[in-house]
Amino acid sequence: MTQGVRGSRDFYPEDMRMRNWLFAHFIDAARLHGFEEYDAPVLESEELYTRKAGEEITQQLYNFEDKGGRAVTLRPEMTPSLARMVMARAGGLPMPIKWFSIPQCWRYERTQRGRGREHYQWNVDIWGTESIEADVELLSVLVNFFDAVGLTPDDLVIKLSSRKVLEEVLGSLGISGENFAPTCIVIDKMDKLSADVIAEQLTELGLSSEAISTIQSTLIISNFDELRSALGEESAAIAELASLFAAAADYGISDWIEFDASIVRGLAYYTGMVFEVRDCAGELRAICGGGRYDKLLSTLGGKDLPATGFGFGDMVIMELLAEKGLLPELVSGNDDIVLAHSTELRGAAMSVASALRANGRSVDLILEPKKMKWTFKHAERTGAERLVLVMPNEWEEGKVRIKNLDSGEESDVAIGDL
Q1: What pTM, to 2 d.p., does this model score?
Q2: Domains of the chain listed by start with CATH number
Q3: How far is 77 from 61, CA to CA, in rounded Å?
Q4: pLDDT in tens, 170-190
Q5: Distant-in-sequence contacts of 352-357, Cβ < 8 A, 24+ apart
């Protein structure tokens, strides 16, 4: 058996270097905006995800019964875990909270480009405030990340809308209550399925042809002024979106943002702003998405608390960065490589390596006899700065030979000066 579970990935050292590089940019962008890191177990109670029946995610669980007879599952997303943690300290957390995490998530679904059955997801959330500024703060985090990795508004766009647009359109058609969530799930597929297939699925939910026509004609609007004309100046959705765009201008991120009424997000718990980040070429699936979800806790048996956040997978963004030639060339980056000239000097080489490490140098001690040619190739491959040679004559004089691998310069250095 040389292959892992279908849809999962092995991370060899070169892959881990790239993953750590990506995660470091995630962390930097979040911390620059004052977010704190948290984590939760990858194993959760199945009930945490099945309380809202009918959502696609309930069909994608890696769920099983543990040895105690409890129904558990690998987490498919992080937000319910976060909600559980917030509920566990209800009233005891200083609000608003600004938290982020990079959990591994599991969903049993068809593997495709940019989506496996496991992936890491950068989650950034703000709880405890209804402020529009909180929603735009999330967009600022994203733009900071995109800037840092070399992406521009020519590469991708943040498409946003408000769930209130959908509520007003469906409300005018008498679609609410239990029918609302299933309708959202179908509408969320408008960019993936043909208009005929969408119409067929909406018909199966009991919608009339007139209602379907109204939904489809409204949700293809990509011009905010056109939406304003369609919904009217008294629309709560229009007021919310106008505030969002004004705040985005204050943040200086308007160039990244575009209104798109078709952005609805499939999860039923969204209540306000919703957004997705897409590549401008339209070749990849959504890079990330999120929005406001003020009523999640009540679905889990708690008291609702305003919240907004996003989830950002690690796979699609790496596809885009590779296409744009923005992935760095990374090496292991050891400071020093220590090589004993002979077996008799192995103990001396160990003491040299220990002395260097005690002073904060990362040291790769060559553990078996190797020729100099191999050692130089190894140093180049790992990106080491110096080669430290423990040689008989120099060691007798209390010195080692150091070769600077960038300049090629060599010098003998006293052990005490290492």
Answers
A1: 0.88
A2: 13-323 (3.30.930.10), 336-417 (3.40.50.800)
A3: 10
A4: 788 877 767 777 887 787 777
A5: 352/388, 352/390, 352/400, 352/415, 352/418, 355/415, 355/418, 356/388, 356/418
Q: Residue type at 90?
A: A
Q: How many residues does the chain have?
A: 418
- Contact 311/267 with Cβ under 8 angstroms? no
Answer yes or no: are the C-beta atoms of 337 and 377 closer than 8 Å: no
Closest CA to 219 of 200, 185, 192, 191: 191
- The Cα–Cα gap between 216 and 305 comes to 32
pLDDT at 52: 60
Question: How many whole angstroms separate alpha carbon 358 and alpha carbon 355?
Answer: 5
CB–CB of 212/199 below 8 Å? yes
Would you call the peptide bond into 96 cis, given omega within 30 degrees of 0 as the criterion?
yes
Tell me the pLDDT band of 219, cut-offs 50, 70 and 90.
confident
123 confidence band (pLDDT: 50, 70, 90): very high
Distance CA 113, CA 311 (A): 18
| Secondary structure letter of residue 396 according to DSSP | H
Q: How far is residue 318's CA from residue 18's CA, in Å, rounded to a whole number?
A: 9
In what helix (H) or strand (E) does residue 71 lie, and over which residues does it extend? strand 71-74
In sequence order, the 6+-apart residues with CB closer than 8 A to the CB of 402 are 386, 387, 388, 389, 410, 411, 412, 413
Q: Which DSSP state fits 108?
A: -
311, pLDDT greater than 90? yes
For 253, phi and psi rounded to 5 degrees? -120, 15
